[in-house]
Amino acid sequence: MQELEDRIRHDGIVKAGNVLKVDAFLNHQCDVELFDHMGAEWARLFKDVEINKILTIEASGIGMACIAAQHFGGVPVVFAKKAQSINLDGEQYATTIYSFTKQKEYPVIVGKRFLSEGDKVLIIDDFLANGCALEGLIKICEAAGAEVAGIGIAVEKGFQGGGDKLRERGFRVESLARIADMDCDTDEITFA
Ligand code: 5GP
């Protein structure tokens, strides 16, 4: 998606450790008009896929998922919550996710009331790096008996391999910007 690539080139900052900072428009200050165009693009890419629910993870995914939902007929958006600990009362699907940016594991939960067998889920997230966050969300869908109908990503860092692994497993992953390479010394970003 040219508009997102241009914005990343203009306002993205490449940090050490393969981290791209996009907090000026994506995950701290939010450019709602850009989110709207991203939602339209996901809707175009997944127009042949039946989707009745969007699943994301707090916090960065929520804004873009809610705007995107308006392009999918106003389907509900469920976000996985980062929990302090996993509550074993049986009311929640739970798993742990290894955080690429924080370099530690954390538990995430989704209330069983909000994800069920028969749901056709579009997972949306801001970044795809090694794929750990998506693995966790896929596990939660599997536990619920819900189908992962598609995965919509804003920025995929292709050189970290998570997207290719998911595609090899048969998931349909559509990333709006795919970074082939980035360099924190020159701030140069190469798109795939
Ligand atoms: P993964 O689990 O695929 O390794 O990493 C994806 C998650 O880590 C995303 O949900 C995102 O929050 C965070 N993340 C991964 N890479 C980056 C990055 O370069 N910049 C930012 N801001 N977040 C990232």
Structure commentary:
This protein has 192 residues and is of the alpha/beta class. It contains five helices and ten strands; from the N terminus they run αββαβαββββαβαββ. The strands form two sheets. The protein has an eight-stranded mixed β-sheet, with helices on both faces. Strand 8 (147-157), helix 5 and strand 9 (173-183) form a beta-alpha-beta unit. Helix 2 (32-45) packs across helix 3 (60-69). The longest helix is centred in the N-terminal third of the chain and has 14 residues, at 32-45. The radius of gyration is 16 Å and the shape is globular. The model has no long low-confidence stretch (mean pLDDT 96). The chain binds guanosine-5'-monophosphate.
For the structure shown, list the relevant keywords.
single chain; 192 residues; alpha/beta; eight-stranded mixed β-sheet; two-stranded antiparallel ribbon; 5 helices; 10 strands; binds guanosine-5'-monophosphate
Task: Describe the secondary structure blueprint for this structure.
Elements: H1 2-11, E1 13-15, E2 19-21, H2 32-45, E3 53-57, H3 60-69, E4 77-82, E5 92-99, E6 104-111, E7 120-128, H4 132-144, E8 147-157, H5 162-168, E9 173-183, E10 188-191
Helix pairs in contact: 2-3
